[in-house]
Write a structure and sequence with these properties.
alpha/beta, Rossmann fold, EC 3.6.5.-, about 20% strand, GMP Synthetase, Chain A, domain 3, 4 domains, GTPase Obg, 12 helices, GTP-bd_prot_GTP1/OBG_C_sf, magnesium ion binding, five-stranded mixed β-sheet
Length: about 500
């Protein structure tokens, strides 16, 4: 079973917001208590947080599906639902969060650094919060919004100052074990190291981290061996140390050839530009000719040393077994690390750029599209989409409230400008779960008609108080109408169109 995983695909889903509730206060001696429905709670978010105790992404490899709890629905008596608890996922420092298309979303560096990868949905408002002077007793509530759901890629890139690179069995693990307190696995066969090993080295006043990167072979940048999986752990290192085995007996292997092969692999590997990493070919180089405790290896090292120095490389002949030449190597690495740290000490403060919303920015747009079913008008925008998600379409009053909100936001006017006419097909929401309806521009929303106490309707009331002259005119019109109606009935009676009971008695 694998014990180290540095790349996983994580499927996360935030919690949905709780629904608001429509409720009327029922209390003794208070027949018109009014609305008292509470709001729904917010859904829990999914948060990645750096944990010093985490060293691998193995847990997410075995359990890649994670979901935060939902918010609780509201209740009567103005009781709001509880918020869903955030789901915090611990990750090692140096974890890079990428979208499914490769876009870098976050680089988690620093103690307790965190990133919200999926936000919980907002809770719906109850009818208590929706009440207003114009809408005193709403008979509806808003639904909770669904939480975000997305797939992300987590990649672990070790935070080390120095990387030891080279062919398998070159002695990198042995070098780390004598330079630091790290205890990597050491054996006399290739690919003993299957995971990057980190060790802390102290040289004078400098303290830095050394990473033992698993062995590279030709074609590592294309995925051969373990190179492609672990070259990402070299991206953050400022100093690259070539560890060359001078005692190898493999045919076709010699220090100069080994160096050229590894350099070619480093040049072919493309680091992540979005993280600001420099190409590996621009990093500081140090060459370590290892296994000098073997007489033949020391002779070979002394022979090729002038050629390597002629290339401008700093060369050290060491033996991890005999522990010779290590002090000079340690202080050389410390010197280069200190120089790099001084270069990045002066960090330019980021400029704060304010991008105010444009005066004519409505927050949405209407797009006319042609589909196999005919012409449709699509309304794209965060607010209209959110309002649609919050609407209970089984409640006519809630639908009227949605129409009010869309009209106030200017959606109806925008549809007119886009060429929509009565009966046109309008689509609001995401393409995979949109609301489709036939547009009626003159439709009364309904919710705006509820202006008084329960049982009243604006359509049954006069909009303004009539004057005395208006009252007299209306009274005269009513009297004239009644007189005309009586005259018409009398005429019909005389013509014999209908008779009364008294008329029938006269006939008898």
């Amino acid at each position: 079973m694998a014990s180290f995983v540095d790349r996983v695909v994580l499927h996360v889903a935030a919690g949905d917001g709780g629904h608001g509730v429509a409720s009327v206060k029922r209390e003794k001696f208070k027949p018109l208590g009014g609305p008292d429905g509470g709001n729904g709670g917010r859904g829990g978010s999914v948060v990645l947080r750096v944990d010093p105790q985490a060293t691998t992404l193995l847990d997410y490899h075995h359990h890649p599906h994670r979901k935060a709890p939902n918010g609780k629905p509201g209740a009567g008596d103005e009781r709001n639902g509880a918020d869903g608890e955030d789901l915090v996922l611990p990750v090692p420092e140096g974890t890079v969060v990428k979208a499914a298309d490769g876009e870098v979303l976050a680089d988690l560096v620093g103690q307790h650094a965190e990133f919200v990868i999926a936000r919980g949905g907002r809770g719906g408002l109850g009818n208590k919060a929706l009440a207003s002077p114009r809408r005193k007793a709403p008979g509806f509530a808003l639904l909770g919004e669904p939480g975000d759901a997305r797939d992300v890629v987590l990649e672990l890139k070790s935070l080390a100052d120095v990387a030891l690179i080279g062919f398998p069995s070159a002695g990198k693990s042995s070098l780390v074990s004598v330079l630091s307190a790290a205890k990597p696995k050491i054996a006399d066969y290739p690919f003993t190291t299957l995971v990057p090993n980190l060790g802390v080295v102290v040289a004078g006043d400098e303290r830095f981290t050394v990473a033992d990167v698993p062995g590279l072979i030709p074609g590592a940048h294309q995925g051969k061996g373990l190179g492609l999986e672990f070259l990402r752990h070299v991206e953050r290192c400022s100093v690259l140390v070539h560890v060359i085995d001078c005692a190898t007996l493999e045919p076709g292997r010699d220090p100069m050839t080994d160096l050229d092969v590894i350099e070619e692999e480093l040049a072919q590997y493309v680091p992540d530009d979005s993280l600001g990493g420099r190409p590996l070919g621009e990093r500081t180089r140090i060459v370590v000719l290892n296994k000098a405790d073997v007489p033949e290896a020391r002779e070979l090292a002394e022979m090729v040393r002038p050629d390597l120095e002629a290339r401008g490389l700093e060369v050290f002949v060491v033996s991890a077994v005999a522990r010779t030449g290590l002090r000079e190597l340690t202080f050389a690495m410390a010197r280069h690390v200190a120089e790099h740290r001084k270069e990045i000490e002066v960090v330019e403060q980021p400029r704060i750029v304010l991008r105010p919303k444009a005066v004519d920015d409505s927050g949405f747009r209407v797009v006319k599209e042609m589909t196999p079913d005919g012409e449709v008008f699509r309304v794209d925008g965060e607010r209209p989409t959110r309002w649609v998600r919050q609407t209970d379409f089984s409640n006519d009053e809630a639908v009227g409230y949605l129409a009010d909100r869309l009209a106030r936001a200017g959606v109806e006017e925008a549809l007119f400008k886009a060429g929509a006419v009565a009966g046109a097909t309008v689509v609001i929401g995401p393409r995979d779960n949109a609301v489709v309806f036939d547009w009626e521009p003159t439709m009364s929303a309904g919710a705006e008609l509820l202006t008084g106490p329960r049982g009243t309707d604006l359509r049954l009331e006069e909009g303004s108080r009539p004057t005395r002259d208006q009252k007299r005119s209306e009274y005269a019109d009513r009297r004239a109408a009644k007189t005309a109606a009586r005259d018409e009935l009398a005429t019909e009676r005389r013509a014999g169109h209908w008779t009364t009971a008294a008329d029938e008695d006269d006939v008898e």
